[in-house]
Amino acid sequence: MSSTDGTAPPTGQPRDDQQVDLGPVGHLGDRLFAGLARGSGALVVLIVAFVGIFLLALAIPALTKNDSSFLFSRIWEPGAVPPQFGIAALFYTTVISSIIAMAIAVPIAVGVALFTTYYAPKRLAAPVSHAIDLLAAVPSIIYGLWGILFFAPILRPVINGIGSALGWIPLFEKPVTDNVGVVFTASVVLAIMILPVVTAISREIFAQTPVAHREGALALGSTRWEMIRMAVLPYGRSGVVSASMLGLGRALGETVAVLIILSVPNGNDPWNSSIFAGGETFASKIANNAAEFDTPEKTGAYIAAGLVLFVVTFLVNSAARLIVARSGPGGKRTRKVRRVGDKPQNEGAGL
């Protein structure tokens, strides 16, 4: 068949009515790789499902015998007759310590990522990046010992200053006893622990900002900060959200460091909502009382607390995935572009 202008197609090129032979498809290697990929995805889903089913199966018998409100009670006596346990205090300490850790770590991590990517010279950026990445290799027990023995006394003047200025707010009320193992100290140590994770991911995302976006902003006369604000930060928004949620998951489930730092309040003491008081998180409570897993009722109570932590972590990661999916590539939401000549939807509606 000849082309539309009457000339024949060049030699070696197929005609419009011919099919190109792309070679055989469906080799054994392709089928094996596809099967392994599907199997790996299904395996992860099954593991998560089995963990949830295991926690639920062991928690239900204890929850049915619980004589207090599991969600709203602060009593924790799973060995009583009948057993009484609630997660209100554990949930509060876990969430408030994680929020404070995120509020401290995320701004610093984003600033460090921008500094090492766009401000620092290469001879300085590489050592700084490696030093921050090495923080992720420090064991949790080292963080805990360093936090309670060395860092907590350094934070004591800060705690006293904040308590004196904002002590009228229950969240910052300074307790009568001078205690170093408080929620605020644990939160700052958690911020240091999640800092390398958020920094590393944010740094990689910021470095992948298209060169055309950056050079275009600079060509229009933008300063370096304006280029970062208009091109880099919008592009890396979804990546920063993902990194922050990974850090939040680490903060929610951290055990050893929090167990060492936080002082456990006495059961007879009234509950204190201040971040300058002691407390227990889900993870530290379970780890600190592992010796009490001697009866099904006690074991079920702690398993029920672990189930709540599992659900909270799952919801946090699911919310992060939804935010990233809605943000789209580069952190920009897709918008419908109106073509020239199209009429607005509200035209003729009297608006």
Q: What does this entry look like structurally?
A:
The structure is a single chain. By secondary structure, this protein is mainly alpha-helical. Helix content is 62%, strand content 1%. The protein has 11 helices and 2 strands; from the N terminus they run αββαααααααααα. The protein has a two-stranded antiparallel sheet. Helix 3 (122-134) crosses helix 5 (183-207) and helix 6 packs antiparallel against helix 7. It is globular. 29% of the residues are buried.
Helix content: 55-70%
Overall average pLDDT: 83
Number of E-type strands: 2
Name the assembly state.
Answer: single chain
Largest sheet: 2 strands, antiparallel
Which runs of at least 5 residues are low in confidence (pLDDT < 50)? 329-340, 344-351
Count of discrete alpha- or pi-helical segments spanning 4 or more residues: 11
The shape, in one word, is globular
Tell me the radius of gyration: 28 Å
Q: Order the strands across the largest sheet as they lie in space.
A: 1-2
Q: State the separation between the terminal residues, measured CA to CA.
A: 57 Å
Query: Which secondary-structure class do the elements indicate?
Result: mainly alpha
Q: What are the defining features of this structure?
A:
single chain, 351 residues, mainly alpha, 2 strands, 62% helix, disordered C terminus
